[in-house]
Amino acid sequence: MTNLMTYPIRIMLTLVLLALLIAAATCTSPAPPLVSQPPPKPQETATPMCTRTLNIAHRGARSLAPENTLAAAAKALEIGADMWEFDVAVSADGELFLLHDDRLDRTSNVRELFPGRAPWSSHTFTLAEIRQLDFGAWFVALDPFKQIAAGKVSPQESARYRGEKAPTLREALEFTRQNNWRANIEIKDQRGKPGDATVVEKVVALVDELRVADRVLISSFNHSYLERVKKANPAIATGALVSTPDPDPLALLRRLGAQAYNPNVKAIEPAEVRRIRDQGFDVFIYTVNDEPTMRSLVEARASGIFTDFPQTLKPLSADCR
Ligand code: G3P
Ligand code: CA
């Protein structure tokens, strides 16, 4: 066979092979270097994120743009947040999309478009129906954080927010990857709903398909979901959300194989943050909007802070991108 190949053909084949290798190496930009502190213990892979407190835009920069939309993500990116957090829900036809509440009516015009479908539970609407809804107009009308009134949102931005759609999880992750960014995927508890059986595996499959495992932290208040994440892909970092203090956070994390403890700010003291961090785990705290608390948590070496005001946290935390 080799004898049949003339020298020029072999050179040509070698060049084609080289070009293919270079293309494969450059077509997706690799995730930025990941660092964490202190070094993980043998069985514990600490969330590899940052050597200083991460600025995590809660549901995007939701004080300046409608929550859980790509507009809020773009705003957070523009501010220089290290990552964004968003909530994942499941539609009636099993599609994953971004929404915080169980119902669609607080953040969309669903009452207007589907008046006969009260109480507008999100899992009773198909993705096609959800995509008809406007998830931006309510923000402009209600100005929930009074940032439009304060002149922090330009009239052009407000105009653009009207008609904003609920992104699918695929769109949210593609946005994250395209911008060389990071995301915290919070899987909303689907217990009692049809989505419960497969939501975790669907999220992980998409994370794997889009090759963003090194850019995401998956969290949930439903801790059995975190175990399912690890079963599906042990390389994905997970965070245990708690609204009240867990009696033994370290035991909880070890039991779940999780990397991070994600407590409500009211459920943790700075000394506890230090203690957990010293054991090689991460601590991401929600939702902190006031500057003095941000400062005290940065000082306590919190791994990250979820905030509706990434613009306030920005000067207090490092740029870790
Ligand atoms: O992940 C932190 C925070 O988002 C959890 O609470 O209710 O805002 O989703 P919630
Ligand atoms: Ca959330």
Taking all residues together, what is the mean pLDDT? 88
Q: In oligomeric terms, what are we looking at?
A: single chain
Structural class based on helices, strands and sheet pairing: alpha/beta
Give the low-pLDDT segments: 1-5, 17-49
> Strand tally, please?
9
Q: What's the CATH architecture of the domain at 54-102 and 165-316?
A: Alpha-Beta Barrel
- CATH H level of the domain at 54-102 and 165-316: which superfamily? Phosphatidylinositol (PI) phosphodiesterase
Note the overall shape: globular
| CATH domain class name of the domain at 54-102 and 165-316 | Alpha Beta
CA-to-CA gap between the ends? 51 Å
Largest sheet: 8 strands, parallel, barrel
Describe the protein's architecture and organization.
- It is built from 13 helices and nine strands.
- It has 321 residues and is of the alpha/beta class.
- The chain starts with 6 loop residues before the first helix and ends in an 8-residue tail after the last helix.
- The longest helix is centred in the N-terminal third of the chain and has 20 residues, at 7-26.
- The protein has a domain at 54-102 and 165-316: Phosphatidylinositol (PI) phosphodiesterase (TIM Barrel, Alpha-Beta Barrel), CATH 3.20.20.
- It binds SN-glycerol-3-phosphate (G3P) and calcium ion.
- Residues 85, 87, 186 line the site of calcium ion.
- Residues 58, 85, 87, 100, 186, 219, 241, 262, 286-287, 306 line the site of SN-glycerol-3-phosphate.
